Amino acid sequence: MSYTAETLQLLSPEGRLVQNEATERYRGVVESIGEERLRDFHRTMSVVRRFDIEAGNLQRQGQLALWIPSLGQEAAQVGSGYAARPQDHLFPAYREHAVGYIRGLDPVKIIAMLRGLSHGGWVPEETGNFHLYTLVIGSQTLHATGYAMGLALDGESGTGDLERDAAVMVYFGDGATSQGDVNEAFVFAQSYRTPQVFFLQNNHWAISVPVSVQSRTPLFHRPAGFGIPSIQIDGNDVLASYAVTLENLDAARSGGGPRFIEALTYRMGAHTTSDDPTKYRLDADVEYWRQRDPISRFETYLRSLGEGDAFFDEVHQQAEDLAADARRRTLALEPPPADSMFAHVYSEPHPVMDAQRAWLANYEASFEGES
């Protein structure tokens, strides 16, 4: 399932602005994007892709148990991530590496989590309200909806002040739309008119099941049955991702209720490093999407605006530096102390946790002196 007649595209695969009746409403947003923000789009897509590739290499070399690549999905993530305001809360699935990077997440924390060295990953308050990765498919949509309900009930949205009002955005994939949790989230979101955006990255594969088997109709048609406005965009078009997400987040935070964005993209790599996509997909399909690569498309656009080699060389070096730093720090990672498993079970000290910690210490001490 590829583009439809309703797919919004602001930047063509050839790197040219699309001008038609559908794109007219977003012209002002695109024209208002400053040069530095345009550079940010390209820089972040490129740097995170290089980190992603390096992390996959580290997994193959035995440095972590699993890696979840985001190769090919950078534009959907970067555009939407930059569209969010600082006060917004973002709930990822498990491959939103670029969104986390935008919000200030140290990418090595993702490696540490997938290496089994942390109990959850990070503290959202310290990572720009970027919440934890969720490996249970679709459950984050309920977490996000509950959080959005809380924002509304606490009066933190819908006041009319876009600089203060908060919204929630939740990321999920096409496979998650087959889960009951996602549909239940739609019900509660619409019932409570939550200030949130459902951001679907349709990368065409739920592991080995194509989206054409999961849904006989475009997925962005589903929310209409719940009364949720929806739109389908070219997810490899960073300008469309940014402009549409900005519009929908501000509509949601202003009291307009939940919104739904389907970003059509493609998972160029494996579902995870435990997967072999050559077993279930055609080379011709991969090549079709390779020609629609989000980074090369945007580079062409930037060069048409006058950006020169110096900038792209700088980005390349920054990407290499980040990859090298991630490798160095990954190799230096140490296992956490065993009693760290008790640290964050409860928000306050708890006698049961204290007792279990003491038991573990005594148990380990009983082995001292034995050969």
TrEMBL record:
InterPro entries: Alpha-ketoacid_DH_E1_comp, DH_E1, THDP-binding
Annotated GO MF terms: branched-chain 2-oxo acid dehydrogenase activity; magnesium ion binding
Keyword Oxidoreductase appears in the UniProt entry: yes
The enzyme's E.C. designation: 1.2.4.4
Source organism, top-level taxon: Bacteria
Gene3D superfamilies for this protein: 3.40.50.970
Reactions accelerated catalytically: N(6)-[(R)-lipoyl]-L-lysyl-[protein] + 3-methyl-2-oxobutanoate + H(+) = N(6)-[(R)-S(8)-2-methylpropanoyldihydrolipoyl]-L-lysyl-[protein] + CO2
CC cofactor: thiamine diphosphate
Single Gene Ontology BP annotation: branched-chain amino acid catabolic process
Keyword Lipid metabolism: no
Domain Dehydrogenase E1 component residues, every copy: 43-306
Keywords recorded for this protein, A-Z: Oxidoreductase, Thiamine pyrophosphate
Enzyme class: oxidoreductase
Family membership: Belongs to the BCKDHA family.
Function: The branched-chain alpha-keto dehydrogenase complex catalyzes the overall conversion of alpha-keto acids to acyl-CoA and CO(2). It contains multiple copies of three enzymatic components: branched-chain alpha-keto acid decarboxylase (E1), lipoamide acyltransferase (E2) and lipoamide dehydrogenase (E3).
Name of the protein in question: 2-oxoisovalerate dehydrogenase subunit alpha
